[in-house]
Structure formats: structure tokens, C-alpha cells
Amino acid sequence: MPEQPAAPDARAPAAEAEDEDVVRLDSPTEERLAASEDLDARDAEGILGVILGEDARVAAAVQAQSRPLAELVEIGVAAISAGSTVHYVGAGTSGRLGVLDAVELGPTFDADPSMVTAHLAGGPGAVLEAVEGAEDDAEAGADLVRTECRPGDVVIGLAASGRTPFVGGALRAARAAGMPTALISANPGAPLAAAADVAVLLDVGPEVITGSTRMKAGTAQKLALNALSTAMMVRLGATYGNLMVQVRATNAKLVGRTVRLLVQATGAEPAAAEEMLRAADGELRTALVALLAGADVPAARDALARFPRDPRRTGDPGGIRTAVAALTAP
Question: What's the structural domain count of the chain?
Fold first, then answer.
């Protein structure tokens, strides 16, 4: 009788040993979307119909996370007010969206990297070209926090899958150092949520192209970051109502916008607004207070110095209304 092969050792299955380096992806973004299973059989209008129909669901998924986003806004405001920094840490699409959000805060709200800054796995060059393997380096994420972050800073991990090792290394190192941590992910079951004090979990479901998180997941993260950073800047006094009074007027379009802003805020004629802006040496907030209060530039400047931007000032974090009230009081 021929010898029978030995039974496999249940304690060390060969198949598992062969696959030990394969990442087990457990995220809704990796599931197949039934509505797009015949995507390649459709014409252009049919393809777009599926894509845009799914995109229409994204805003509701972000809206559903307004409570943790609001909590994160206040954490960020407190940190920035104390002189600390909010750090975005991500890889791939998520990381690039963080870079985009952070750099656009400068011209819009006169923010700088000491307030909000972004870090991308693979370094700045990874913005334009993928750096293979960078997102898998957890130690690099931890080193980033140890070298770039200080006590009191906030570390926000951006990971569509909710498992990116680079982001996980950063979050764990930040938590070990006592820094507030947060995660923005498109996976409601994100493993890294356990390393975050605040988890913003955007339930966008499967992608039209399975696993392509540059689609709905990316759109959701962009919306969440826009809402987060804009709300932080408003709470920090960078607007008057819905007008961007901290804008850097670095080109002709933005100079024109500052004049139009003064007209919108005060009802002044454009020529009068432009003249006041020149008298204030381009200081938009000073010109605004002077026009609203009917005061001269030195008086407006002094009033703003007495009432600087302060998120603790309820109803007037920018100090503009309070400065005007002080100048017009009987």
C-alpha cells in the first residue's frame, strides 16, 4: 500500500505562511459597488451618471460627522490660540488633500505653518509623484512626530482606509507624548480610530472603481478638511461675518476683493473704500473699523490693538464689532 502523505500541521498552515505579508483590507472602500459592476459596458453619459450619482451621497456622509468635527475644531482652536500647531499627517490622496488644505489657508486667512501644517509620507516630492512604500513605514510616521511636533500640538491622521501604517505610527507617537490626536477616515471600522481622541469616520460606502479612494473617499475628506479648517479660522477671528478680513492681497484680483469687501461690509462708495484702504496702508481690518465707526485711521488702529482677535470673545472673535462699539460709544 503506498505511503500516505503526512497530515498538514494545523499549528502552522502553509497557506497562511505564504500570505503573511499580504495586507488584509477590511474597508467599505474595498468592496464592490453593485451599481457600477457593468461600468465598462456603459457609454460616457452612463459612466458619469453612476459616478456623479454616488458623489451626491458624499455630503450627507460628512454632515453625519458634524459633532466630532465640531469637537476637533475646538481642540484645534485651543491649540493654535496657545501658540501650538495643528498637524495633518497622511499618505497618497489623503496626504495630498491635507497639503492642499493647509497651504490654501495662507492667502485666504493669513495663516502660516505655525498654525496648520501638513506632512506627506515620502516627503514633499510625493505630492507630484508616488513614493512607493512610504505609507507602509510606521517608524517614519513616529519619527515625524518626534522631530516636527511639540507638546501641545494636535496630530490629525488622514487615512481613507483607516489603517495606513505611516499614519498609525504618527498617531501612536503623538498619543505617547500626550498630544491630542484625531483621525479622518472613510472606514467606519477604522483600526486606527483606537489611537485617536476624536475619530471622524466618513461612511461613503464602496467606490465606483473598487478601492479607488481618490473618488468618494477623497471627496469626503476634502469636504471634511474644508469644513474643519474654515471653522477653525472663523473661530480664530479671521472673518467679519462671512467676509475674509485677513486675506493677503498679493495680486490685482485680491486687491480688488478687499475694496469690494469694504463696500459690502459698510455700504461705502468704492472710491471712499479705496481711499480709506490706502490711508490705512492696506490694513483691511483697520480700514473696516474706521469706515464702520466713522473714525480716523489712528483711532481705528488703536481700538483694534485694545481688542485683538480672541476666540473666547463670544459673538466677536475678530474684535471688529467690539472696536467699533468702543469708538461709537457716547
Answer: 2
The label of the residue with cell 490660540 reads 81
Residues 106 and 221 in one domain: yes
The catalytic position among 54, 135, 207, 274 is: 135
Q: Could you say which of 209, 235, 261 is where a domain stops?
A: 235
Choosing from 185, 202, 235, the residue where a domain stops is 235
Q: How far apart are the first and last CA of the chain?
A: 113
Same domain, 62 and 97: yes
Please pick, among 71, 74, 104, 275, the residue that the annotation labels catalytic. Answer: 104
Domain membership of residue 268 as a residue range: 252-328
Question: How would you class 107 by CB atoms within 10 Å of its CB: exposed for 0-12, middle for 13-18, buried for 19 or more?
Answer: middle
283 flagged as catalytic: no
Strand partners, 86: 116, 154
Residue of 310, 320, 315 lying closest to 288 (CA atoms) = 320
pLDDT, tens digit, 9 for 90 and up, residues 224-245:
999 999 999 999 999 999 999 9
Q: Do 238 and 247 touch, CB atoms closer than 8 A?
A: no
**Residue pair 229/116 in contact by the 8 Å Cβ criterion:** yes
pTM beyond 0.70: the answer is yes
Q: Is 135 a catalytic residue?
A: yes
Q: Are 286 and 277 in contact (CB under 8 A)?
A: no
Residue with cell 476624536: 198
Non-local (6+) Cβ contacts of 105 within 8 A are 111, 115, 116, 229, 233
What is the Cα–Cα distance from 246 to 257, expressed in whole angstroms? 12
